[in-house]
UniProtKB/TrEMBL annotation:
It is found in: Cell membrane. The keyword Cell membrane applies. InterPro entries: DedA-like (IPR032818), VTT_dom (IPR032816). It comes from Streptomyces roseolilacinus. GO terms for cellular component: plasma membrane. It comes from the Bacteria. Keywords: Cell membrane, Membrane, Transmembrane, Transmembrane helix. This is Membrane protein. The chain crosses the membrane at residues 43-62, 125-145, 157-176. Residues 20-145 form the VTT domain. It is a multi-pass membrane protein.
Length: 189
């Protein structure tokens, strides 16, 4: 039996639940695809499908636990204000908010639960979740794939792939944070 099937199974188990850190695994899978160990189209299909399935499960849990969860969240002013803030963004901005929350730490789980609890339409949620997961899977697997292609060339330059990608991502994040015209947020008083 081909051992790549076990790896695809591991990918499903790591991408369905929203609280499992899986970026390194996906990038590593991309590098394996670059070396021919995995099929790149199958890798993208499996991870994208399982991630969207996980988002749907979280959304459904939020929808079904709505009454109990809203009661629990309403007892604490901080939790209530956070729920109201996320709910307001989802209803105001719709699909772009669903996409954006995917890229906030723990946002995949919190965003899905909140969207389900506040009655956001499932179809619109799935469109946003699908776009967000497509972006996440393509850049995570893609970086691993490109790194794998670069590394298979060998030489000392291959040792610089990880640090170079990290510096590039950090520079982009810093640039977005400090772009002109953006007002810094004030601390809550």
């Amino acid at each position: 039996m081909d051992c790549s099937y076990w790896f695809y199974t591991l990918l499903v188990l790591a991408t369905v639940p929203p609280m499992v850190p899986n970026s390194a695994l996906l990038a590593g899978a991309g590098a394996l695809a670059a070396s021919g160990g995995l099929s790149l189209p199958l890798l993208v299909l499996v991870t994208l499908t399982s991630a969207v399935l996980g988002d749907l499960v979280v959304f459904t849990v939020g929808r079904r636990a709505r009454g109990r969860a809203l009661g629990w969240l309403s007892r604490d002013a901080r939790r209530r204000s956070m729920l109201e803030w996320v709910s307001d963004r989802i209803h105001r901005y719709g699909i772009p908010a669903v996409i954006a929350v995917r890229f906030v730490p723990t946002g995949r789980g919190v965003g899905g639960l909140t969207a389900g609890m506040v009655g956001y339409p499932m179809r619109r949620y799935l469109i946003g979740a699908g776009i967000a997961e497509a972006l996440f899977v393509s850049y995570t697997v893609g970086l691993g794939y490109l790194g794998g292609r670069f590394v298979t060339g060998g030489g000392p330059a291959s040792l610089l792939v990880g640090p170079a990608v990290s510096l590039l991502v950090a520079a982009i994040a810093l640039g977005v944070q400090r772009r002109p015209g953006r007002r810094p947020e004030r601390a809550a008083r």
